[in-house]
Amino acid sequence: MKRLILTLTLLASPLWAVEPSEMLDDPVLESRARDLSAGLRCPICQNESIDESNADLSKELRIIVRERLVAGDSDQDILDYLVARYGEYVLLTPTVSGANWILWLAAPGLFLAALGIGWSTIRRIPETPNGTLTDEEQTALDKILRS
After folding, report:
1. Which secondary structure element, helix H or strand E, spans residue 23, and what is its range?
2. Segments in 1-147 forming alpha helices (H)
């Protein structure tokens, strides 16, 4: 029973990242804040959203998001502000524009290149007719088997 409680506690720990003092009274604004926070990367934790992170910087970012929502900024205005301040790294899903096209196209491009190289390598392997050995190969094989 103790293990079950411990497991459930560890699974629910990201829910504790947003402290009650940070939450907005308006449920609509709080929902927007949670949606925005889920798409923003914690600069310290790297692959964790600021909504899940307990780092001080994540707390500050969550507060900034909520302050700007209360001020009336749109979601895009808030994202633009944070990207201008922290760089595009703060977005968990980078935009598909500019130099990021290289990143988005690199994996499929390298995969296709690997398929092409593999296909051409396989096509270059000479086939022996009906799986028989040439006279030289048979002689070499007989020599190996006799030793």
Report:
1. none
2. 2-12, 27-38, 56-70, 75-86, 100-124, 135-146
∠ Cα 45 56 81 (to 5°) = 80
pLDDT of 15 over the 90 cut: no
Q: Indicate the domain borders of the chain.
A: 2-90, 100-146
**What distance, in Å, lies between the first and last C-alpha atoms of the chain?**
68
- What is the average pLDDT score of the chain? 82
Question: Regarding the domain delimited by 2-90, which CATH topology (the fold level of the hierarchy) does it fall under?
Answer: Helicase, Ruva Protein; domain 3 (1.10.8)
* Distance set, CA 8 to CA 13, 40, 127 (Å): 9, 25, 60
